Amino acid sequence: MESLKEIYRIGHGPSSSHTMGPRRAAECFIAENESAASFVCMLYGSLATTGKGHLTDAVIKEVFANRKLEILWEPTIFLPYHPNALKLKAFSEHGQLIKSKTTYSVGGGAIVDEGESVDKKQIYPYSTMDAILDWCHENRKQYENMWRNTKAQRFGNFYNRYGAS
Q: Residue 43: its pLDDT value, please?
């Protein structure tokens, strides 16, 4: 996890993978293709299977408001990277394909474009409880002290100076 901000995001529900992610993908795509005359959105796998109940089509239509849009449902096709996939296509007024982009809604409203790396910078030095407890044992510290040391490393003397815990 990069940050606790990855856990709590504000947006449409009932499923962030089916609403927030597709909305974000659609907003990015429309910003890249403002001059397009029409659009096609193909929903694959889980997005297509449960998309109507989770309002996936509603958020996509909202983003493409006042633009020509066709939504196609492909519930039996699962793309290899992730089950929540959508492909957006932009067309000129003459029907020529301007751009096509496949995006995956990977959870919590996060999206990954096809071919994009999903490596994220980890901001916490330990990613499992075992690693935290090992550090505590090796450094003869209690868990509470480990937490204070981590905060001091990240935030300098602020915590020591003002007595924040």
A: 93
Alpha helices in 33-105 (DSSP H): 45-50, 56-63
C-alpha 59, offset from chain centre: 15
CATH number of the domain at 100, please: 3.30.1330.90
- Position 118 in a domain: no
Q: How many residues does the chain have?
A: 165
Residue range of the domain that includes 83:
4-113
Instruction: Note the helical H segments in the chain.
Output: 20-32, 45-50, 56-63, 129-138, 143-155, 158-162
d(CA 42, CA 48) in angstroms, rounded, equals 8
- 122 in a structural domain: no
**pLDDT of 40 above 70:** yes
The answer to whether residues 18 and 68 belong to one domain is: yes
Domain-located, residue 29: yes
Q: Return d(Cα 21, Cα 47) in angstroms, integer.
A: 10
Q: How far apart are CA 143 and CA 134, in angstroms?
A: 10
pTM of the model: 0.67
